Amino acid sequence: MLKQSKLNTAIKTSLMTWALSTVVLSSAMAQETPDAAAEADSYEKVVITGSRGAPRSLADSPVPVDVLSADDMAGVPFTDTNDILKTLVPSYSLQRQPISDGASFIRPATLRGMPTDKTLVLVNSKRRHRSALVQIGGSGTQGPDIATIPSAALKAVEVLRDGAAAQYGSDAIAGVINFVLKDNDEGGTLSAETGQYYEGDGGQVTVSGNIGFALGDKGFFSLSGEYTDVGSTSRSEQYCESWACMDSTDPNYLGGGSFDKTLSGYSDETFAAGLSAANLGGEDVVQPWGQPNYSGAKVFFNSGYEISDTMKLYAFGNYAKTEGDGSFYYRYPGNGTIENLRKQDGSLYSPLEKFPGGFTPRFFGDITDISILGGIEGEFANEISYDFSARFGSNEIAYTLKNTVNPSMGPDSPTSFRPGDLINEETQLSADFTKYFDMGLYADVLVAFGATYMKESYELKGGDPDSYSQGPYALPDPWGFCDGDAATAAGLAVIGNGSTLDCSNSDDPVYRAVGVGSNGFPGYSPEFSGKYDRDMKGIYVDVSSDVTDVLYLQGAMRYEDYSDFGSELVGKVAFKYTLNDDFNLRGSIGTGFRAPTPGQQGTTNVSTRLPNGFPVATGLFPAISPVGQALGANPLTPEKSMNYTLGMTGAIDGINLTLDFYRIELTDRFYAVSTLDVSSTEPTDPTASGYADALAAYNNFLKLDAAGVAGANSIGGVNYFQNAFDTTTQGFDFVATYSLGDTLLTTSLNYNNTKIDSDASAFLNAEDQYDLENAVPDWRGVVSAKHDFDLLSILVRANIYGSYENAINSAATTIQEYGSTVFFDLEAKYQVSDDLSISAGARNIFDQYPDSDGNGDKANRDDCCGVTYWSSNIVDWQGGYYYARLNYTF
User: Fold this and answer.
1) How many domains does the chain have?
2) Which of 6, 321, 395, 478 lies deepest, with the highest CB count within 10 Å?
3) Chain-wide mean pLDDT for the chain?
4) 353, 351, 358, 349: which is closest to 331 by C-alpha?
5) Residue 279's pLDDT is what?
6) CA distances from 159 to 119, 143, 178, 373 (A)
């Protein structure tokens, strides 16, 4: 009676205390060795994720799951797995942040409006380790780097769109994404693709492949690899703002309110000649906006060996080495970094001596990702199935900063720095057991239980001393030339040698103090370096069964204890009810939680941001650090959720349908507070307009200075992470497929809306509150049609984004409305032979773009400094892309 002898029960699930008294049922993972005769080029549309027992069909799953086969993914003109998911799963969204430190290379994503750190990522039903990058703004996401998983290694991807923290552990508030690796023991594939954007940039070359080997007659070893080289893009105009203009066609060329023509060695001709060297990216603008350069090699293996009929060994892992580079904000004369300074001999120095046209720092990230997992699964004589596994995962980001200076070092500053590394490591041991019991119900009851232990750490590895050291020019008058308005003996000596020193002039460069550390990204000093670690112990139990011929129930309870946050108990129940032969009703209710990661507790960052539309150095400090505590931060606590879903699956005249409504109530939501202004200038007139804000900014400076922050006088803003407010996210997913002979039609639609439920004004300004609720389209859809003409197949896809709005200023008094956007993709594939096929096509074939930032009005742009399109837009703003691909199967 629905018994199953071989189960891979890797995922921790549990029984809910408040669930059904007779049967409490849960969903989790199962992995079977498929019968060889059932293997096919495309993955059968059954669900592993969401059912602990035998895999269930999509229609029979009690929770909504998208199953993407290898064929589905091959039809998407992307190689980055992130982009593939974005294209095929409407509730999965992806941002591109071109000037955002490590986020330029590891892009933040969302599922059902929730950041990726609230989506559990699995590989072969086992937890995937996190990236070392903590996003520095907004939700502060630290999730796995999905881009390190090459699509060539994937047999399928299962996207569980339902809260599942009780089933699978912390992080699964929004859902679960399970990447199923290929398990072929012979044959393989080889693919080569090239393409570029209509604009003539962003050229890409990708070579990928897979090969399978038999290990005797009872095992397999599947090896997959990918090499990608992607060029940068620029959707920019020349930098020309009210404070500084580099556009030679503008009347204010080499002028502006902050542009300083008095710096040492300056002339219009010298400066203009130096502009071409201001950016190492080779663009025709000093500050390009677009995708960064990116290249890398990724390798994945998957293996298994049957020792006996009741025992199997398995292992899989990966190694990825990738690198990327992009630009920061352009530095112009007079911006606080390029300033005249008095050298020790009394003469003047300016960074223009190193960079005659100003400079744009270039940021490089080298990412190394490693994982290894091994286990043994089988069945005891008493028919209890077991799965013992151990895994280790590591992600390391090594930063390099070029084309910049440490301003405080003056003429002694190098122009290249190693600001430090970020390292995230995880080790986990798991033991999982299952057994079927005959309890007199319609089907046997599956009882599962197990335990897990995980140790994780996050390290900020210190940079080279020049990247964080405080040089003499961090303070005014470093050589002691002046005493009040009069020159000292040292000052008189340099005046006697021809210096223009004037101590009575408060604007004399002798009084200038500049920033500390490699400009753009100061290095991690010993005070702000270190290692943060914790461990977690968890246990679970669950029961599941078809209790009647029409009712399937599942439930879960999970207990986890964290060394830094204490213990948490969560649970979930779900059901599937068969209405008739064509329609099923399904739903779930459950609690969830997510413990802030060691990285989110310990990350420190100083970078250039735009809190009020103007570039300023902004510091992010840990809530538990002396700086965070001085600023009023509270220690972090876990986020908690209540999740509800109710849906239906069915078929009408060959049309397969699913419709699922959901609601996620998230309390104590983790978020970066809005940037707090910092100023080293003490306000003196209480009657002046803005005095209270100026005083608050000055007090923030005093707090930074008292906490020992080097160069606090050069920091213009500061923030930290907090459990700041409560939100409710709700919406629905609709999926319909229809096969009409040789034509397959698919429609996927997601509606998603988030509202803040509590008073967030103490943490977020009006702009950040407005954008959280409105800056992402509520509607997202994908409609596709694929038709086969014998050897030729044609795929047409429409990607649909609804309208959305974005607040421009901190008071949210100026709002930009963005209209809906539709991108069309077209691909033709020709089967040359049984083994060889050629594909060619274009994504966004009509070269559509979202509305420009500010609709052409610079005064109403959310970004500045040469931007054309809003950089944080989830709607792609790169334009049309054409490509050709060669596929060989052997």
Assistant:
1) 2
2) 395
3) 88
4) 358
5) 54
6) 10, 16, 6, 22
Residue at 268 is within a domain: no
> Which of 562, 755, 8, 601 is closest to 313 using CA atoms?
8
Asked whether residue 270 is domain-assigned, the answer is no
Residue 748 contacts residue 732 (beta carbons within 8 Å):
no
Domain termination site, one of 465, 496, 511: 511
Q: Read off the tokens for 490.
A: 């040292």
Task: Please tell me whether residues 485 and 594 are part of one structural domain.
Answer: no
Whether residues 408 and 486 fall in one domain: no
Residue 826 CA to residue 796 CA, distance in Å, equals 5
> What pLDDT, on the 0 to 100 scale, is given for residue 268?
82
State residue 654's pLDDT score.
87
Q: Are 57 and 46 in contact (CB under 8 A)?
A: yes
Strands 188-197 and 639-652: unpaired
Kindly tell me the burial class for residue 237, based on how many C-beta atoms sit within 10 Å of its own C-beta (0-12, 13-18, 19 or more). middle
Which residues, listed in sequence order, are joined to residue 305 by a DSSP beta bridge?
219, 313
Single-letter code of the amino acid located at 700: N
Q: Residue by residue, what is the 3-state secondary structure of 343-395?
A: CCCCCEECHHHCCECEEECEEEEEEEEEEEEEEEEEECCCCCEEEEEEEEEEE
User: Across the strands, what pairs with 308?
Assistant: 311
The CB-based long-range contact list for 273-278 (8 Å cut-off, 24+ gap) reads: 273/356, 273/357, 274/352, 274/355, 274/356, 274/357, 274/358, 275/246, 275/357, 275/358, 276/357, 277/355, 277/356, 277/357, 278/330, 278/355, 278/357, 278/358, 278/359, 278/360
2 has a pLDDT exceeding 50: no
Range of the domain at 505: 477-511
Residue 852, C-beta contacts closer than 8 angstroms, at least 6 positions apart: 868, 869
Average pLDDT over residues 407-435: 96
One domain, residues 492 and 608: no
Q: Is residue 13 part of a domain?
A: no
- pLDDT for residue 4 is more than 60: no
What's the CATH code of the domain at 435?
A: 2.40.170.20
**Which has the closest alpha carbon to 471: 513, 423, 440, 427?**
513
Task: Show the tokens assigned to 111.
Answer: 């599922």
| Residues 451/430, Cβ–Cβ less than 8 Å | yes
Q: Is residue 3 part of a domain?
A: no
Residues in the chain: 890
**Residue among 157, 175, 184 at smallest CA distance from 76:** 157
CB of 25 within 8 A of CB of 543? yes
CA distance 109 to 83: 10
pLDDT in tens, 650-708: 999 889 999 999 999 999 999 999 989 999 889 999 999 889 999 999 999 999 888 88
Residues 234, 327: Cα–Cα separation, whole Å: 11
Sign of CA dihedral 139, 145, 150, 153: negative
Both tokens of residue 834? 């049984």
Is the domain of 434 the same as that of 581? Answer: yes
474 Cβ neighbours under 8 A, 6+ residues apart: 408, 513, 514, 515, 516, 710, 711, 713, 714
Tell me the percentage of the chain whose pLDDT exceeds 90.
Answer: 69
